[in-house]
Amino acid sequence: MKDLTNGSIVRHILAMTPPIMAGMISIMICQLVDLYFVSGLGDAAVAGVAAAGNAGFLVNALMQVLGVGTVALIAHAVGRKDRADANLIFNQAVALSVLFALLTLVAGAVLSRFYMRSIAADPATIEAGTVYLLWFMPALALEFVLQVIASALRATGIVRPAMLVRVVAVVINIALAPVLISGRGTGYPLGVAGAGLASSIAVAIGGLMLLAYFRKVERYVAFNPAQWRPQPRHVKRILNVGLPAGGEFAMMFIFMAVVYYVLRDFGAAAQAGFGIGQRVLALIQMPGLAVALAAGPIAGQNVGAANGARVRETFVQAALIATVVMIGFMCVAQLKPELLLAGFSNDRETMEVAFLFLRIISLNMVAQGLIFTCSSMFQGLGNTKPVLVSSATRVLTYSLPAIWLSTRPGFRMEYVWYLSVAATTFQAGLSLWLLHREFGKCLPPIRQAEAPAQAGVDAVTPPARAPV
Q1: Residue 467 lies in a domain
Q2: H helix or E strand, kind and range, residue 465
Q3: For residue 223, which of 337, 93, 115 has the smallest C-alpha distance?
Q4: Which partner from 62, 139, 317, 445 sits 20 to 30 angstroms from 186, CA to CA?
Q5: CB of 129 within 8 A of CB of 120?
Q6: Tens of pLDDT along 79-135?
Q7: Is 1 a member of any domain?
């Protein structure tokens, strides 16, 4: 366990960011690897895999329910030096992760084809996406348990093991993808099914590695089967923090589904170009997101320790670092987008869409960095409801106008990207205002409680909220 209530906040952020970023980039690379090797199967396969990957946002919403609730509550317990509560929260989260994994497998088997039919018009795209989802669902199901373990480690200030496991999983996926997709070396090509299977095998091996590390090395929290029986009070604590954060990812799923819907009349090449551009954009946003995620446990431990001044400083430093990082990558996307998109498709129309998307959407990277930072701070504070409010506002200010524009004569796809930039900028402003308001409600009581240490424990959560 690493104490984040003392020492330089900037040093803590910079120490935690690279492993977090490496872990996240490895996840994104897995998806890009699938697209890269699937690109040889044609536009319909690329569009199907890209559109199917959007379903991952919905599953990620459930993962965030567990991950955010686990990080926030364990970080608070660490700050309070309450190891018993940290272990109880961890084991309750493990039980929930198994339940969510089973639900994911069932939903994938039942709803995959219906989902693809709702966002794609081309039969070949629908078939490719459905097949990919069915083989990719085991990977998503396994991610629930991995999410809880990695979140518990991150709450205690440990991020390197999860990163190393992710890197190993990427290497395995890269090695398996060409073998399973195109049958390289075996003569038995599986096509898009091979892409999903490669990811599932890689995640399974990575999961076993992380589980072995956790059982052998981790000492602050541990598996305790006696605590796996759901306890409504503590399940509610996790859900009170996690559900709004999960709702944020659900909003992202809706946002992405609307994009695919309004692009469907432009054909498979347009959807494929958007899928490629979106994943590259997500990749270059990862450093800024990693900075924000590093700020969450720091803020959470200091909330638990009733140190309001360090909570505020954590936001300021994280926002500054994230802004500088985002500006740098925005410049690359504006000036040399071909460096980021090279090699994903040989189809000229597909790549033209990807170039156009990346150039326009990269304009909102600074705003997105601020949104990431505010979201992580709300997680650290233990109140994620404002995150859901800002995300829902973005969906409303984007989705309805986008659908309306798509019905107007002369509609062009770049209108969708410009509208997205405007909606994201508005969300960033709203998020900053909501965080300022939350600081005003939470941090003054924390500062008043800093003198009596025990009273500080009670001051972590305002009376009107569920206990954290």
Answers
A1: no
A2: none
A3: 93
A4: 139
A5: yes
A6: 888 999 999 999 999 999 999 899 989 988 888 888 888 777 778 888 888 888 889
A7: no
Which residue in the block uniquely carries the two structure tokens 């969708």?
416
Asked whether residue 468 is assigned to any structural domain, the reply reads no
Neighbours of 242 (CB within 10 A): 28
Q: Could you give the C-alpha distances from 394 to 53, 136, 425, in angstroms and in order?
A: 21, 29, 9
Sign of CA dihedral 148, 149, 155, 161: negative
For the stretch 388-433, pLDDT in tens is: 888 888 888 888 888 888 888 888 888 888 988 999 999 999 999 9
Nearest Cα neighbor of 156 from 247, 48, 82 is: 82
From residue 5, how far is each of 63, 75, 224, 298, 383 by CA, in Å? 27, 11, 27, 7, 20
**d(Cα 115, Cα 278) in Å, to the nearest integer?**
19
Query: How many whole angstroms separate alpha carbon 279 and alpha carbon 32?
Result: 7
Q: Which of 239, 244, 253, 248 is nearest to 58 (CA)?
A: 253
Question: Looking at the domain assignment, is residue 333 inside a domain?
Answer: yes
Contact 73, 54 (CB under 8 A): no
From CA 374, how far away is CA 377, in angstroms rounded?
5
Please state, in angstroms and rounded to a whole number, the distance separating the CA atoms of residues 133 and 49: 8
Q: How many domains does the chain have?
A: 1
How far apart are alpha carbons 248 and 289 in whole angstroms?
15
Cα–Cα separations (whole angstroms), residue 226 to 93, 94, 151, 286, 325: 13, 12, 21, 38, 45
The residue with tokens 């326009």 is 360
**56: exposed, middle or buried (C-beta count within 10 Å: 0-12, 13-18, 19+)?**
buried
Q: Is 55 helix (H, G, I), strand (E, B) or coil?
A: helix
Residues 6+ positions from 3 with CB-CB distance below 8 Å: 78, 157, 301
Model confidence, pTM:
0.71
Nearest to 16 by CA among 301, 215, 284: 301
Cα–Cα nearest to 253, from 391, 138, 47, 377: 391
pLDDT tens, 122-179?
788 888 888 888 898 898 888 888 889 988 888 888 878 887 888 888 888 888 988 8
Residue 395: give the domain boundaries.
9-458
Residues 261 and 406: their CA atoms lie apart, in Å, by 9
Per-residue pLDDT, 154:
84
Cα four-point dihedral sign 287, 46, 268, 335: positive
